[in-house]
Amino acid sequence: LHITDFELAGRKMSFSSRGLSAGPDSVSLLLASKDKADTIALQMTGGKSDWFLRNFSLNLSDGTALKVSGKARKETGEISGTVAAESVPAGLVGEFVKVVGRFKALLSFNGKLLGTLTAPVMEGALTAREVFLSEKDQESGVAVPVGDFSAQMSWGKSLFKLDKASVGGQYAGDFKYWSKPVSKLWASVTAQDANPKIFFAFMNTAPDVSGTLNGKIEIAHKKDPDLSQKEPAWEGSGELKLTQGTWSGTPFDEMELRYHCSKDRLTVDALNMIQSDGSMKVRATASQTGAENPLKVYCNLENFAAGANRVDCEFRVDGKYHMGSNEWLA
């Protein structure tokens, strides 16, 4: 038995059988790379009503390790067991959960295997130490440290959930993503004296921003709401304050965001950038009752420093918010 060009976490590997035995109700298999540094082992037996996975283990030369054991009911496909993983590259998980790819870390997991053979679920403790952002700081060119991470994870066929998540002692919160019956995500996050780059990495974006972030937000988004039943695409509210920082090179003393969502309307109560002797203040509102919704924006700039220029102006914009694409057009 040979497995060639097996790709895992960006590495291509090949395995050959180092041991294989099979009987009416048992299978035992050992695969290894040519230098025997990477191995895959499987031992499974069958009983009258159950299949028993005595051991499935993956051990790679870079330290990545995975071990699974458990049983499955022959009649129903119901499964139960344990899962343990060590030193799993975040990039591997990032192939399934894109936002995880924004970070460099070695993940560990210890928990249970539940559900059925066609819809397995993993539940347990997910941790990582010495986490960094994948993208280096634009100004210094060095990796941005995040700190340690911990959460209670549940990962199934249609639900990915993190409860009691803690990130570097700066962020705490909960996250859920459903793919069925409808695509929806929900998050609640509290920031305390936090690096804003970490926050935006979790939002799967990387603006040029610096400062100290504090506040709390709660937000939910449904990809395809039933507008005929007046289902909202967006829910939640929040307030964030970013102090003593820059945004795309523009310095500020304080930047503030306050927003709330009702069943039929999205409102940005305040998006303010306060400088030592100038300011920019923005208010916005849009309906969320149709595919195309009225959008109104008000902006006031007083002695606002933009590069080498100072700006004084006031304007209003009427536009459209397109629900399906989440585009804002003036």
Note down, in words, how this protein is organized:
- The chain has a 21-stranded antiparallel sheet.
- Helices cover 4% and strands 67% of the residues.
- It is built from two helices and 21 strands.
- The chain is mostly beta strands.
- 18% of the residues are buried.
**DSSP strand count:** 21
Shape: elongated
Multimerization state: single chain
- Low-pLDDT parts are none
Largest sheet: 21 strands, antiparallel
Distance between the termini: 62 Å
Keywords:
single chain; 330 residues; mainly beta; 4% helix; elongated
Q: Any chance you could write out the topology, listing elements then pairs?
A:
Layout lengths: L1 E7 L2 E13 L2 E7 L6 E8 L3 E10 L5 E9 L5 E11 H5 L8 E13 L4 E14 L11 E11 L3 E9 L3 E8 L5 E11 L1 H7 L6 E14 L11 E14 L2 E12 L3 E10 L4 E9 L4 E15 L2 E14 L4 E3 L1
Antiparallel strand pairs: 1-2, 2-3, 3-4, 4-5, 5-6, 6-7, 7-8, 8-9, 9-10, 10-11, 11-12, 12-13, 13-14, 14-15, 15-16, 16-17, 17-18, 18-19, 19-20, 20-21
Short description:
The chain has helices at residues 90-94, 196-202; strands at residues 2-8, 11-23, 26-32, 39-46, 50-59, 65-73, 79-89, 103-115, 120-133, 145-155, 159-167, 171-178, 184-194, 209-222, 234-247, 250-261, 265-274, 279-287, 292-306, 309-322, 327-329.
